[in-house]
Task: inverse folding
């Protein structure tokens, strides 16, 4: 699945000053939900997710480098659909974002690798904020548009989340039904093929016997 | 009086907006583990519940004893291990963050076959009464809403786990189906070939070209 030629990972030790800067940054602006990944110095790092069709995908990625805050290393990104179509391609950037609505169900993969950098860089850290479906909805704009705020907005959000939970549950039920069918077909095939195997064994050995009897009779040994 | 009320309203809205963006952080992705793969997630408040699950999805092995599973380790920003699981093909985890900071979630694959791990991490925060006392704009109802939200997030987390497990089960089923068909047809062909070889050998034993025409 992934084409990552990843070398052995080494622990990144963040100096305390970075943590302080990060804390200040987070206090000043609303924080984005993100995980951090390590991009190796050679090879690509790929993350993927199985997504249904007709789902909104919103992602934001940015390079975090504590060693050179003024010259952060650049990365290149590529997002592919399950059928191989290129949905997003960006070279040598420090941050970028992409958004699309899925047209087919399958495995969507986002790959990152280090772009061309003038100085040789070790592993870079990339922050990736990947949201699909319910979490991709922009609630601030919904609040402004419908002019609802506070508890009502919270409850509307919870209602949308319950809706998405319900949809997920129906999807899981459908998948389980499909798999149960496959299991039952396999079960019946085992029974049928075992009986057939016994039949083949008996047929082959009786054929053997018949041929050898005819052969020996021809040779006048019997 | 009205201006103060309006200010209070705006302040509540801003705090709620901030809270909304802070409460509940999640990520659900799959990554291929060749050797060690680490994912980092930031925990803002000390005492936050970090919950999640992971499932090893891609499993193209022949015998199940070939690959007992992968190891999973969570390291706190101080460097000590908060949670560890060894040799598993998927598990749920939950712990209370002892301090805020950047937590490292590592998957370690002790064998050479690359595995695909689908994981989900959620950091949940519920404002408690201490925060309530400090900030008079914080409504007690927000605590209840946060609790409700965390309960729903746990349902979502469980669903993602079930979905990943279902995918893995699906792979196993497909593999069983293919193996069944392939090996059975192969068995028939081999049986027919073995008996044909038997007949040919017996014929050779009784052929005239053998020096002694007796067996």
Result:
């Amino acid at each position: 699945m992934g084409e990552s030629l990843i070398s052995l990972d080494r622990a990144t030790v963040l100096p305390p000053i970075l943590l302080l800067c990060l804390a200040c940054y987070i206090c000043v602006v609303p924080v984005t939900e993100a995980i951090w990944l390590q991009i190796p110095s050679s090879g690509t790092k790929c993350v993927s997710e199985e997504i249904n069709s007709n789902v909104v995908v919103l992602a934001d990625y940015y390079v975090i480098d504590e060693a050179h805050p003024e010259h952060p290393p650049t990365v290149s990104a590529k997002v592919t659909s399950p059928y191989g179509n290129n949905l997003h391609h960006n070279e040598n950037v420090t941050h970028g974002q992409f958004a699309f609505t899925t047209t087919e169900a399958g495995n969507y993969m986002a790959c990152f690798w280090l772009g061309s950098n003038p100085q040789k860089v070790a592993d870079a850290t990339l922050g990736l904020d990947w949201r699909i479906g319910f979490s991709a909805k922009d609630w601030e704009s919904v609040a402004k548009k419908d002019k609802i705020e506070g508890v009502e907005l919270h409850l509307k959000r919870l209602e949308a989340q319950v809706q998405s939970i319900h949809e997920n549950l129906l999807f899981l039920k459908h998948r389980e039904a499909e798999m149960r069918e496959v299991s039952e077909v396999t079960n019946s095939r085992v029974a049928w093929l075992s009986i057939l195997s016994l039949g083949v064994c008996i047929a082959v050995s009786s054929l053997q016997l018949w041929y050898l009897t005819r052969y020996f009779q021809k040779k006048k040994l019997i | 009086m009205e201006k103060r009320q309006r200010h209070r309203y705006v302040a509540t809205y801003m705090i709620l907006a901030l809270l909304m963006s802070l409460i509940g952080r999640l990520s659900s992705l799959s990554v291929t583990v060749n050797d060690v793969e680490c994912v980092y997630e930031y925990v803002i408040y000390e005492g936050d519940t970090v919950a999640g699950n992971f499932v090893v999805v891609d499993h193209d092995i022949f015998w199940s004893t070939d690959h007992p599973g992968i190891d999973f380790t969570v390291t706190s920003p101080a460097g000590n291990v908060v949670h560890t699981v060894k040799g598993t093909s998927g598990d749920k985890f939950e712990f209370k963050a002892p301090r805020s900071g950047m937590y490292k979630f590592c998957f370690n694959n002790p064998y050479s076959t690359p595995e695909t791990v689908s994981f989900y991490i959620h950091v949940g925060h519920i404002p408690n009464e201490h925060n309530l006392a400090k900030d008079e704009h914080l409504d007690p109802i927000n605590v209840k809403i946060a609790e409700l939200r965390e309960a729903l997030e746990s349902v979502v987390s469980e669903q993602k786990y079930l979905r990943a497990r279902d995918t893995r089960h699906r792979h196993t089923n497909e593999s069983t189906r293919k193996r069944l068909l392939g090996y059975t047809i192969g068995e028939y062909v081999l049986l027919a070939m073995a008996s044909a070889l038997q007949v040919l050998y017996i014929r050779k034993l009784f052929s005239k070209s053998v020096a002694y025409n007796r067996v």
About this structure: The longest helix of chain B spans residues 140-205. Helices of chain B lie at 2-22, 129-134, 140-205. The CA atoms of residues 65 and 87 of chain B lie 11 Å apart.
